[in-house]
């Protein structure tokens, strides 16, 4: 019996994005769901920094195409025998797992515990912009920084978001405002400043200048929470100076520099990392929290509290357009999300 195949975009070699072989159109076997997996017919995907970081040049070759892509919106085609949360025909959105093939393919397997019901008020392209950044922002705020979900608890508390106009920052601003925090974002260009303000940031400072003088000019001596979405090492001293005693700092950006944790000691400051792939990579007992939070984000979207952060949509999903999207993200100047729709 001939195995069914499907279209996908993948790589054999890890090359600069300018090289046409850095991402190529391929045909691969169509997978089948087992256990708690869903087989999803992919309608739209979006691109994140993790895509180009995984694809970045290295001395390695793959014997089978490596498929990237960790933001998907689509329709459940089949469910595994142990699946209980979804049925064929359900519209879903999710970010998937870094240790499994990505979603840049016509069909994709994903564990249902990290999948949410797609917001009903959004089309697939708009929904595909949300999962990875929403999970990262949610886990950063509520799991790592310990921000309360009760608005009254956050009265008078301040959050500084470094890199507020990017994908995660765009969602974090909206979640934080909905939780009653005063949000100070960093941005350095007119378009990123206006984007962050439009999403609800109360104040904007420039991350190329010292933080504390700018915070004081805006009326703040210090901040209760810092969420670092850009260059942890570069901003470390500024964060340590700006954070309040017993405050909390969370970063999502890996660093090759050694961080001087002693800068946080006198203030008893907590520092935490956030990686939204942790739960799926280690199959943690609370994996299903990502299903729950994506459903809650969908509810907030449908209630008009959170808006999608799609800023550019390319059609169709193919190697040429994915190379374009990677190149755009590699400039580190994109505002909002780049989405691809339709095979």
TrEMBL record:
Its main location: cytoplasm. Homotetramer. The lineage of its organism: Bacteria, Bacillati, Bacillota, Bacilli, Bacillales. CDD domains: AL_MDR (cd08252). It is found in: Cytoplasm. Residues 18-340 form the Enoyl reductase (ER) domain. InterPro entries: ADH-like_N, ADH_Zn_typ-1, ER, GroES-like_sf, NAD(P)-bd_dom_sf, Quin_OxRdtase/zeta-crystal_CS, Zinc-ADH_QOR/CCCR. NCBIfam families: adh_fam_1. Keywords: Cytoplasm, Metal-binding, NADP, Oxidoreductase, RNA-binding, Zinc. Pfam families: ADH_N, ADH_zinc_N_2. The keyword NADP applies. PROSITE patterns: QOR_ZETA_CRYSTAL. Belongs to the zinc-containing alcohol dehydrogenase family. Quinone oxidoreductase subfamily. This is Zinc-type alcohol dehydrogenase-like protein. The keyword Secreted does not apply. PANTHER family: QUINONE OXIDOREDUCTASE (PTHR44154).
């Amino acid at each position: 019996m001939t195995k069914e195949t499907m279209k996908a975009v993948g790589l054999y070699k890890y090359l600069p994005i300018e090289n046409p072989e850095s991402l190529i159109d391929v045909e691969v076997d169509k997978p089948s769901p087992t256990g708690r997996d869903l087989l999803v017919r992919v309608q739209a995907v979006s691109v994140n920094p993790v895509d180009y970081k995984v694809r970045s040049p290295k001395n390695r070759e793959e014997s089978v195409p490596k498929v990237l892509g960790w933001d998907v919106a689509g329709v459940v085609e089949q469910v595994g025998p142990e699946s209980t949360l979804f049925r064929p025909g359900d519209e879903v959105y999710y970010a998937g797992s870094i240790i499994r093939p990505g979603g840049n393919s016509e069909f994709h397997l994903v564990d249902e515990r990290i999948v949410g019901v797609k917001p009903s008020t959004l089309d697939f392209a708009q929904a595909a912009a949300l999962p990875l950044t929403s999970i990262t922002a949610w886990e950063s705020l509520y799991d790592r920084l310990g921000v309360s979900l009760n608005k009254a608890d956050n009265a008078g508390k301040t959050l500084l978001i470094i890199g507020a106009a990017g994908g995660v920052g765009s969602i974090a601003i909206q979640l934080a405002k909905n939780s009653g925090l005063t949000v100070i974002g960093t941005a350095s260009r007119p378009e990123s400043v206006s984007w962050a303000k439009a999403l609800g940031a109360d104040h904007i400072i420039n991350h190329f200048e010292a933080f504390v003088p700018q915070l004081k000019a805006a009326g703040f001596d210090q901040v209760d929470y810092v969420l670092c979405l850009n260059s942890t090492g570069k901003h470390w001293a500024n964060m340590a100076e700006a954070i309040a005693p017993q405050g909390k700092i969370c970063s999502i950006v890996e660093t090759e520099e050694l961080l001087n944790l002693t800068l946080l000691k006198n203030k008893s400051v907590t520092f935490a990392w956030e990686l939204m792939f942790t739960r799926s990579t280690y199959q943690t007992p609370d994996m299903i929290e990502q299903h729950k939070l994506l459903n809650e984000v969908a509810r907030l979207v449908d209630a008009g509290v959170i808006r999608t952060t799609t800023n550019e949509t390319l059609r169709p999903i193919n190697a040429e357009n994915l190379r374009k999207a990677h190149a755009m993200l590699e400039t580190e100047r994109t505002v909002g999300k780049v989405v691809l729709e339709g095979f």
